[in-house]
Amino acid sequence: MGALYMGNKPIIKVDSKVCIVMEQMIRLLHDCGLPMEDVDFINCDGKTMNKLLLEANPRMTLFTGSSKVADKLAVDLKGRIKLEDAGFDWKILGPDVQEVDYVAWVCDQDAYACSGQKCSAQSILFMHENWSASSLLRQMNDLAARRKLHDLTIGPVLTIGLSPRKHILAKMVTVAVSGVDDIGKQCMGLQHEEMLEHMNKLLQISGSKLLFGGEALENHSIPPIYGAIKPTAVFVPLEEILKDNNYELVTREIFGPFQIITDYKNDQLPMVLDALERMHAHLSAAVVSNDSLFLQEVIGKSVNGTTYAGLRARTTGAPQNHWFGPAGDPRGAGIGTPEAIKLVWSCHREIIYDVGPLPQHWETPPSS
């Protein structure tokens, strides 16, 4: 839509497994009055789309997908690309425990609404030890247990990818203008056995434990190419997360109902900040606290495209007038705000008019 707002005609290419989602969206737009010639929709494999992009030489491409393919396209298109990247999105609960019911509900929504298939979904929760002593985890467990397949409060993971890099990305609607999804198994739908295998690797880390979930959904006819697991949370000790041989595994983004939970003490906040800094993509984050000094410490030493701060902070559910996009990469694409749309779908232009008239009796001035 940002492309259309700026007067561009987009070509849309999405993941072949879920292209029906975008097709129905376009049909809805046509029904609402969008001229049929304003958007082109293409279904093809990744290699074909890559060839089309090279031959078409587009002025701009917005890509949402694997970081591996994004890096390839950045070279192929000579930098004429913006990336609406994903991130391993974090939430920190500060030392001031209050409104536990509300915070637990927001954590459940951030991690498991839409079956966790949101690039802003809560991937890891750092809770101060004061929260560990509260009823937070019990309430999160109870809220997760309410989610059922019959009312779609939990459901199949339509697309998911396990990347060899520090982040993983796959989406229901993967590309806003044009993109490539031919990256082998990285964008294949993960069977629930594979997601559970990832969980089991995490549980091999010293001190780790399953907090809740960790089982496949039952009594359904979901095709095996799609994942189907219960909302899952795995606790991993902070000291273990920071170890080089564990960090990449722990911060691997699962585009589904899956999160990591850990806790920290007052003197361990620098360790938490170190864990945040080492993450690959800095998209969305939340600092849940009304302690202004704590907020200042965390916000001042972390970087994200969008950070919500305060007791009601969340990672997901941003209204459309908020900026949404990654930080730390000049290719980062923002969505939502007029500024973000102009940044992605236009370029800076400046026209200076200087038409006179000249003063009467103008003479050539001396050399200067």
Automatic annotation (TrEMBL):
Q: Which InterPro entries match?
A: Ald_DH/histidinol_DH, Ald_DH_C, Ald_DH_CS_CYS, Ald_DH_N, Aldehyde_DH_dom, ALDH7A1-like
Query: Would you name any one GO CC term?
Result: mitochondrion
Q: Which family does it belong to?
A: Belongs to the aldehyde dehydrogenase family.
Listed A to Z, the keywords are: NAD, Oxidoreductase
Does this entry carry the keyword NAD? yes
User: SUPFAM superfamilies, from UniProt?
Assistant: ALDH-like
Protein name, please? Aldehyde dehydrogenase domain-containing protein
The domain of life is: Eukaryota
Task: List the molecular function annotations (GO) for this entry.
Answer: aldehyde dehydrogenase (NAD+) activity; L-glutamate gamma-semialdehyde dehydrogenase activity
The segment(s) forming the Aldehyde dehydrogenase domain are 3-309
What Gene Ontology terms for biological process does this UniProt record contain? L-proline catabolic process to L-glutamate
